[in-house]
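Forum: Protein Structure Q&A
Topic: Joint prediction for protein chains with partners

I've read a bunch of threads here and the consensus seems to be that you should model interacting components together rather than docking separate models afterwards. I'd like to see that in practice. Below is the full input, 1011 residues plus whatever partners are listed. Could one of the regulars post the assembled result?
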Amino acid sequence: MLDLFLQQTVNGLALGSTYALVALGLTLIFGVLLIPNFAHGEFYMVGAFLTYALVMAGLNFWLAMALGALAVIALGCLIDLVAFRPLRGAPPLSLMISALAASIILQQTATLIWTSEARTIPTPVTGVLRTPFFIVTWMQVVVMASLILSVAAIWAILNRTRLGLAIRATAQNHDAALLMGISMVQVRLATFAIGAALGAIAGALLGATFPIYPTMGVNPVLKAFVVLVLGGIGSLRGAVLGGLFLGLVEVMVAGYLSTELQDIGAFTLLVLVLLIRPQGFFGTAQVER
Amino acid sequence: MKALRMAAVCLTALGLTMAHAAPALTDEILIGELHPLTGPASFYGIPESRGIQLAVEEINAAGGVRVGDQSQMLRLMTEDDHSTPTAGVAALKKLRAADVRFIIGPLGSGVAPALFPIIDRDSGVTQIVDGTIAEGVTNGRNIFRNQAAVSQYDLAVADLFRSKKYASVAMMTDRFHAGFMGTQPALSETLKSLNATVAAEEYYKLGDTDFSAAMTKLVSLQPEVLLIRGYPAEGALITRQARQLGYEGQVVWEMVSPPSTVLKNISATEMEGVYNCIPPTTEDYIALGQDKALAFDKAYQAKFGTTPGELSTLSYDAVYILKAAFEKAGSTENEAVNAALAAMRPEDVPQLISGYVAHQDGRLFDDVGQVNLRGAVSIWQGEGWVPVPDLAG
Amino acid sequence: MARIPHIALISAVAFAAAVAVATQMNDYLLYVVILWAIFASLAVSFDVLLGYTGYLSLAHGALFGLGAYTGAIMTTRAGAGFWLALPVAGLVTAGVAMVVALIAFRTRGLYFAVLTLGIGLIGHQMFLVASGLTGGVLGFAGIPGPGVPSWLPIDQNLWNTCLALALLLVTFLAAQVFVRSRLGAACIAVREDMTLAQALGIGISRARLSAFIFSGFFTGLAGALFAAINNFVAPESFTVLGTGFQLVALVVVGGMGTLWGPILGAALLTALPEALRMASGYSMLAYGVLLLVFILFAPKGFAGLIQRGAAVLRRPATRKLSPTKEGVR
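Posted by a regular:
Agreed with the consensus. Here's the joint model:
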């Protein structure tokens, strides 16, 4: 019984780290630029498809992932240029619709190029780690390690570089940052580049475990928004812990209650958390009466 | 308020722009086809639509359909149902407004039940369902189906359990699939009556990627069989995750799963020894070297530059069934065609690729309009499915 | 602002004109008009919430489904007639909307949107899981349609169209009355500056709660009518991604906070996929591009374009003040 529980906990953490990995890029772009970027799911999808195409062309997986991420950075900046930058200062709702439109366009273009057939990237890391208490695949270990690396890298960029300082300043107060002479173009570009790269890396890694198809980004991005709100908008710590928490809850509900209730359980949790803490775990309070 | 005037203007404009389609010429028979050509289901829908196009072209090139003593050409109208009920109903109404009286489709288990009440009470239209396997979408009066019903898939599962005498089973069913969900209780009962303990009935949904919770539970129960009912992308993933977590029993699939798609999602070694319980599909007939299937494959590749989909042959067959019905009825009146369909025997349509078995009274369709396309057990060996002949019985 | 009797008169004329046009249409066009009218009713009542209070709810796809299933259960299991089931569906949905609102209004901004998204997803999942009541994924079949009164010499499809248009008329007029009431004025105050509104002693809680309940009631009516006309409903029609976001798109493309803009938005976004049927394969792509073009070049939607056009046409005339500031809290 206990080792079953341990196994389920490991399952939950493995699932949660996939949620957190997708949520990282989303929370960064939202936290800094206030864009609810639904097209993040498509960064994830395009990253997966490009990696797949390059691996099928004979490239090494990690090289393919890096090239894919570069291409998605370019795509991210293009989307920003076309869909978001013209809407500077527009209400969040317009940005959301714009993001939705971008997301539909990318999905449909991907369908035209790759059709909607599901496929999986050949796993670069095979095999299973068997311990006396639980089993975990090496690929899951890689995903968890990538999560830790990504968080460390973002933290280093935000806290140890001038660019990071500019990004943080923008996130705190856009107008003041502008007055301080911070180049918004640079901040936007950097934020989108990092966010898109994170999405692409998540896509490549998860595409090696899950099937990839043009609408594969839709559910993860919904979950990522839930993670975002659970953890508190714009909080990296919140994104990681929120993701792990959501993964654990889903697995526990599916494992101990019913697989049919997995989604209902996860979203009921969301509602309950927001009832108790309307700003999420790590968000700043803005409760009203 | 100006808005309201505008609304009225728009409404009129709408009426004008979407004017009636050109009526059929007298020596033409309009055939409407309804399949998902966009969205996730288009992977299955487009090859069905192409199967129909191919059959229509072949028939027309060979001189059309002999109705009485005159030849008539077939004209195809293609509509996209997006695999959603609302778009499907709109598409059906559009075909009906263009005076289409013969319809092939749909694919989606969610679309067919939405069309059913409309077609069921419309004596001016005849439908052949070539895609969905959901129960209860035919009536044997003006709605027929040349695709298997899920319950016929389930027969093969029962065959397998009967012959292997499995003692326990865990079921994983796609709960977004109306067809599989529809027969879930009945199949569960059947397996119990074959002395198999149903250790767990778990569900997942299309697009799910993590099955670890259910698989961990499954491994702790170690049932002899893991039965997966749904689509191959998830089927492959469930199979893989179950093995990774240490499941050692027999994996049985109940799903349309062409080897080409399967191998894009799981390695051949991981699939070795998995059973599948469905009627043969396009790739199986081609693999078996059936002449008509080979010719179909060749023509399809020449025309579309890609291999046919697993359901393409069903759609192709549906057109020839309609053609045979027109010729037998000597008329294109729906009432006569319906009667011809109801009385049709498999040998009346020599072009059929799928291996339909006549019902006991010799007819192709039974009283509710269902063909006999029984599921068969096959096993994964090497790079694809291989029939297991000695099981059926 | 125009007066209610004035609006009522013009609306009634437009309704009569629409019915007159409808009599000339074939069944397919009638069905497109029905879809338009039902989604326009949804969009108008949704605009009362989104356009006048600024709160973005993604739970309305599920509320639409609740109305549909309530209507379906009433007419099949409970043996009620359509005309009883319709208001009951509206009231039940309004009741549930009230509970949802009481929970959701503890938050604002993106938190509100995501919280209601969660509730919308729970609702959609409940339709699947509670298969004893709803038929689950197999759908709810055999819902009786709204019978044509025996004294009317028209067929079922035309009657369905008349009902859908009538629902739109009623929803539109009710919304006009609502936004002109004290509650409606308070809603605008909520949207414009909540802190100021609070300081002035405006009852913001009551205002936004009533806007949510108002939209819930008419969403329920639309759901019940949708179910009766189709004779069949399935959970697929009530997803957050499909219906929930679709409603937002209808209102934004039409023009938020105008009430009549969303009617045009619904017309555009219902007719477009139908008009693009021949371009199958590219139709969704075109839909995405259109959405993007609209949000970039006509941020105030269809309504904004028309108002600007009208202003250009009669430049000397004084411009009427209309709600302008958009924004989500």
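DSSP finds 14 helices and two strands in chain C.
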